[in-house]
């Protein structure tokens, strides 16, 4: 059989709208900027896998340190719960780009939240527990008090 005369019996493929949209954004110069922003947050975000927390003790105190680079102090929330410490970080990022020449305006907003719960071997004394935030390191410390164990008696 001659290949020149051979025709494919399948009907011609229809164009896929999503592929066309993807192609459009791949050609747009702003797409490169948005992709680099996405890559940054996917690869460098403390929210993707939580954030490192370290618990250690001195002679008189327990100390918790959390590494929070690039986080604003206003985004950090600390909750003291008997013998547990909850550290929550909320990050609200807004990005706008404009290209007057091509009349393109983009706006992206991303909200992320990460939380860590640290169980201490001591009861937390709220009045003597202190926190500081310096150079991306959150440090919380308080005095060592033995855990109070509640027991239930059977009548």
List the main descriptive attributes of the protein structure presented here:
Small_HSP, Immunoglobulin-like, A-crystallin/Hsp20_dom, 40% strand, 155 residues, Molecular chaperone Hsp20, 3-stranded antiparallel beta sheet, alpha+beta, HSP20-like_chaperone, 7 strands
Describe the protein in words.
Belongs to the small heat shock protein (HSP20) family. The mean pLDDT is 78. This protein is elongated. It has 2 helices and 7 strands. The chain is of the alpha+beta class. The strands form 2 sheets. The protein has a 4-stranded antiparallel beta sheet, with no helix packed on it. Strands 3-4-5 form a 3-stranded antiparallel beta sheet, with no helix packed on it. A hairpin with a 2-residue loop joins strand 6 (130-134) and strand 7 (137-143). Helix content is 17%, strand content 40%. It has 2 domains: 15-44, no CATH class; 51-143, Immunoglobulin-like.
**Which second-level CATH architecture of the largest domain applies?**
Sandwich
Beta-strand share of residues: 35-45%
Number of helices: 2
Overall outline: elongated
How many E strands?
A: 7
Write down the domain tally: 2
State the helicity in percent bands. Answer: 10-25%
Instruction: Note poorly predicted spans.
Output: none
| Straight-line distance between termini | 97 Å
CATH T-level fold name of the largest domain = Immunoglobulin-like
* Structural class by sheet pairing and helices: alpha+beta
Major sheet: arrangement of strands: 1-2-7-6
* SSE ordering: HHEEEEEEE
Please describe the biggest sheet, giving its number of strands, its sense, and whether it closes into a barrel: 4 strands, antiparallel
**CATH top-level class of the largest domain:** Mainly Beta
Averaged pLDDT: 78
* Rg of Cα set: 27 Å
């Amino acid at each position: 059989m001659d290949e020149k005369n051979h025709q494919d019996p399948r009907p011609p493929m229809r164009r896929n709208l999503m592929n066309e949209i993807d192609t459009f954004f791949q050609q747009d110069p702003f797409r490169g900027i948005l992709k680099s922003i996405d890559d940054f947050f996917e690869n460098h975000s403390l929210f993707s896998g939580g954030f490192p927390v370290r618990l250690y003790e001195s002679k008189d105190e327990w100390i918790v340190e959390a590494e929070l680079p690039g986080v604003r102090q206003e985004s950090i929330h600390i909750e003291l719960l008997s013998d547990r410490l909850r550290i929550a970080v909320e990050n609200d990022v807004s990005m706008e780009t404009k290209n007057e020449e091509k009349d393109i305006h983009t706006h992206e907003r991303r909200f992320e939240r990460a939380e860590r719960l640290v169980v201490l071997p001591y009861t937390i004394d709220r009045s003597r527990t202190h926190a500081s935030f310096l150079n991306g390191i959150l440090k919380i410390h308080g005095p060592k008090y033995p855990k109070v164990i509640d027991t239930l008696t059977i009548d």
